[in-house]
Give the backbone structure.
Amino acid sequence: MNLALQGLMAKRRSIIPVTWTQQTSSFSTDLIYGVEYGSDGYWVATGANDKIASCTDPTGTWTQRTSNITGFIYDSYYNGTHWVIVGKDGYIATATDPTGTWTAKDLSGSFSPNAISVGWDGTYWTVAGSGGGLVTATDPTGTWTDRTSNLSGTIYGCLYANSLWVIAGQDDTNIATATNPTGTWTTRTNSFGTDLIYDIGYGDGYWVMVGAGGKMAYSTDPTSGSFTQITGGSNPFSGTIVWSVAYGDGIWVAVGAGGKLATTSDPTGTWTLQTSSFSTDLIRQVRYGDEVWVAVGADGKLATAVNGL
């Protein structure tokens, strides 16, 4: 690629995506809870009524797969060799190819009741969920070991980035950090009070958390206990729940209740509402991969956008 084209692409990627297009998701009217892009080139979407779908082009056909998890499927992750999905009653399922066979595993003894979020740090898988439950494994098809998260409520967010694990959710403290998920998790002060934290994003040196009451906050170091709330005109969610946040190619996107979707290139500055194409339906999660944004939510809705287009 020549330098001129590289410059044009870099410039395009820095432009906020403003056009979101609804796609056919194959979820009918079922809530789509989560979506993830893997380095194998597949997108995986998960949600209500055992549903899971995959595709290589999110603007094209999403094909339903057999998850072998009964009930809600909350989250998914791909580490280069395995996909892991997590869900209701503490069940997880694994696959080396999302279009193939998913093998379920019962971890219900670790969660009361649901496994909700999953991440990977290069060595350890970590799954977190209800009742402060947290388990780790080096091989997702093998043995999972219970760990002490030091959070008593439901853990909704579980993310590894910049050599740090951060978990967050429902608890008087809300967040905990660890450099090794098999060791000690240390609770940290944050600015959410008793409001739930629903998602965590990382990019360009910033950690961003979002949650109930329209709250959004950022930090450059979660271990410091210093999270700055995004307030006033800089936060356009006006007290409505912010369900999810993600970073990609210089852009942040946050989504929430009432079909709200906001973007920024600087999480410490002003977030600007965009027309999401969800009308007033809630948007449950947003993720970025292969130069495409995908947002999912209520009534089986799924929308895509490209940075700068």
